[in-house]
Amino acid sequence: MLAKWKEKFRQFMIGRYGVDDFSKFLLGAVIVCIVLSIFIHSMVWEFLVLLLLVYSYYRMFSKNITARYKENQKYQLMVTHLKQLRTHHFYRCPGCKQKIRVPRSGGKRVEITCPKCKTKFIKKI
Ligand SMILES: [Zn+2]
Asked: What value, to the nearest 5°, has the Cα angle with vertex 52 and ends 46 and 57?
């Protein structure tokens, strides 16, 4: 009986996206939100949690794999960026708006040279 259901589920999942890092994050967020709803008594909040849950499942069962893959890549890029915020500063070049990543050094004033247009600017890093 269980094997039959497993097989049915497997067939249902064919050509569907499935679970990735972003959906794990979304489901984690849903759990946190459900815990928070012990303290937040609001219909709007519950509705938002439900929306988040529906969105997580929508992504897992989606057949638009390219779009979901791109979302996951954006998510992973964001996570990498957030991790780097602890060790790096991010600046925009005043000349060409290029994003520049500089390792933190505890408030020293440093002259930064843009790798793209060679504009120099001073920042405390
Ligand atoms: Zn520049």
From this structure: 130
